[in-house]
Amino acid sequence: MLSAHRALESILSSVTVGEAEVVHLQHAHGRILAEEIIAGEDIPPFDNSGMDGFALRAEDIAQAPTLLRLVGEVSAGNVLSRRVGQGEAVGITTGGQIPPGADAIIQIEWTESVDGTSVRVMRSIPPGHNIRRAGEDIHRGEKIFEKGRRLRAAELGVLASLGRTQVQVYRVPHVAVLATGNELVEIDQAPQQVKIRNSNSSTLLALLQETNSLPVDLGIAGDDRTKLREKIIKGLELDALITAGGVSVGSYDFVQEVLRDLGVEIRFWKVNIKPGMPLLFGVYKEKPPKGPVKPVFGLPGNPVSAFVTFTKFVRPALRKMMGENSSEKELSLEARLEHEIKTTDGKRHFMRGVLESRGGVLTVRTTGSQASNLLTSLAKANCLVIVPETVSLLRKGDLVKVELL
Ligand code: AMP
Ligand code: MG
Fold first, then answer.
1. CA distance 218 to 400
2. Who lines ligand 1 at CB under 6 A?
3. Residue 171 DSSP code
C-alpha cells in the first residue's frame, strides 16, 4: 500500500501556488507574502535614547559622583538643537533624539536632582550607553522578508514601521467541504433513532480557518449518486474540494465513482496509515482548462480519521497553494513515552497524545483508546504521536516523534 510519504509527495507535486493580490495591511494577518520586502528606510530612523534620563558627555562623568548643569530637555517626538557642552546635561525621555554633543544617556535612577538646575550623576558610563542607533533594527536596503513568509503579528509590526500600507500576498484558496452519509443530520436537528449529527463539517471548516483558507460549507449529501453529484459539481467550481465519508469499500460508498464520472483523475486511494487508511486523492482539470488543477480530497468519515488526514495531507497542500515557504515547517519534537506502544499492522500510526513538560523533560502518553470514532480522544490531545511503519514496539522511556496539534 502507498506510504504516507509517497502519498504526500503525490499531493504536493499535483498542486501549484496560486496568484498574488494586493491587500491592505489590516487584512494581511495570516496571509503569505508574495513579494520580497526590502527596507526603504532605517529603523530606528535616528539615534535616540533607550531610557528616561539625561544626555551628557561620558568623559564628563568619568569621576562619579559629578554635578552637571541642566541646560534643557528633549522629549520623544521633539527636537532640541542646543549642543550639550562640557559639564552639561539635558533631560531626555525614551525615544527622544540624542542632542548634538551628547554621547551617552544616564538613566534617571542613577541621578539626583539638585534645585531643578543641576543633576548629580552617581555613576560613570561608557560612551554610547543607552543610545539606540539609527538602523540598529533595520538597515535601509536590507532584505527583511522573503516570499512565502506567513505574516504574523510581528511581521505586520515590521511592515507598519516601514510604512507599508499595502502588501502583496497570495490568494486564499476557497475550499469546499462536503459531508456524506445517509445517517447524517444537521447539527440543529434532533437525530431520530439511527441518525447522528454531522460533526465532520464543523471540524473541517474550523481546520480550514486555522489554515487561513476560506471554507465553503456544502452541507450534507446522502449516500445517493445524484445528490453527491450535484454537490460535488458545486465543490469543483472552487479551488479545492474536501469530502468526508463514503470512500471505503461499503456498498454505499459512492464518492470515488461520482468523482470519476465527473472527470476527477484519481491519483491514489488508500494509504498505509492509521487512522485514515481509505484516504483518496484526485485532481480536477476544468474543461476547457481555466486555471490550475484542483485537488480533491476524499477523507474517510470517521471523525478522527477526517481530522488526522486533514492535518497530515490536506493542510500541507493548502499551504503550498497559498505559497507558504516549506522551509518554515512545523516544529518537530521528541518526547519520552510514558508507556509502551505496540502496533501489529505495519502502518504508520498517528496516535492522539498528551504532551507535557515534567521537570523540563517532554513526556507523552496516548489518550487511551485510539479508535477512530472517538472524538473526545482528539479533544483530549495536544499532539500526534508518530509511530513509523517499521516500528512495532516502543518501550516506556523511548524517545518518540510528536507533532503539536
Ligand atoms: P464512512 O467513511 O462513510 O464509511 O463513515 C465511517 C464512519 O464515520 C461511520 O460511522 C459514519 O457514521 C461516520 N461519519 C461519517 N461522516 C460523518 C460526519 N460528517 N460526522 C460524524 N460522523 C460521520
Ligand atoms: Mg458513509
1. 38
2. 179, 181, 183-184, 196, 198-200, 244-246, 248, 250, 300-303
3. P
Is residue 389 within 8 A of residue 347, CB to CB? The reply is: yes
pTM of model > 0.85: yes
Averages of pLDDT over each 10 residues, the chain, 405 residues: 98 97 97 98 98 98 97 96 96 98 98 96 98 97 97 98 98 98 95 95 98 97 96 98 96 96 98 98 93 96 98 97 76 92 97 96 96 94 97 98 95
Residue 56 dihedral angles phi and psi, to the nearest 5° = -155, 180
What is the Cα–Cα distance from 34 to 125, expressed in whole angstroms?
A: 46
| 8 Å CB contact between 76 and 96 | yes
Residue with cell 467550481: 237
For 295, the grid coordinates are 485537488
What separation in Å is there between the alpha carbon of 224 and the centre of ligand 1? Answer: 15
Q: For residue 375, how far is its CA from the centre of ligand 1 (angstroms)?
A: 12
C-alpha cell at 316: 500541507
DSSP β-bridge partners for residue 296: 241, 282
Name residue 321's amino acid: M
* Ligand 1: centre distance to CA 245 (Å): 5
Question: Whole-angstrom Cα distance, residue 229 to residue 385?
Answer: 37
3-state secondary structure of 332: strand
